[in-house]
Amino acid sequence: MPPSLLVLFAQYNQQMNRRLYDCVTAMPTEQVMADQGAFFGSIFNTLNHILVGDIIWLNRFSQHPAGFAALSTFSTPATINQWPKPASLDAILFDDLVSLTKARHNMDAILLAFTEQLTAEHLASSLTYRNTKGDTFTKPFGPLVLHLFNHQTHHRGQVSTLINQAGVDLGMTDMLMSIA
User: The domain at 3-178 falls in which architecture?
Assistant: First the structure.
C-alpha cells in the first residue's frame, strides 16, 4: 500500500472526527452520556474507546525501529506521560467532553504527522508488540497501521448511528466526498 493512502486516511479521519465531535458537543450532555445499549454503552464511552485504541496502537508503533518523530510523545521519557495509559479497552480517559475533544484533536494531529513520515519501506517491515493480555505478536506494519484507521471508522459508525437515532444529522460520511 502506498504511504500516501495512509495520509489520505489520516486526513479523512481528522475531518470526520471534527464533524462528529461538532455534532456531539451540540447535543445535550445527558444524551451523550446516556447508556444507549451500544457495545460501549454511550456515545461518550465509545468516543473514549476510540481514543484508547489510538493510544494503545501508537504506543506500540512508537517502538518501531524507525523511531518516528511524530510519536515521540509515546516514547521519549520527558513526554511519555502526556497521554493517559489505558488500563482496559473500556477505560474512561477523560470524564468530560471538553477534555476528550481537545485530546481527540491533538491525537488526530499526531496521526496525520505520523502518516506523513511513513515510507514504503516502513510499511513493508514488521512490528513486534504485546497485546493488552501480554501476548507477543510480530505482524506486518502496514496492515497494523491500516487497522488503526479501520478501528476508528468502525466505532465512528456506531457513534453516527447513535447520534442519528437522537435526531442529529452528521451528513455524508463517505471518504470519497472528502477527496479533491
Answer: Up-down Bundle (1.20)
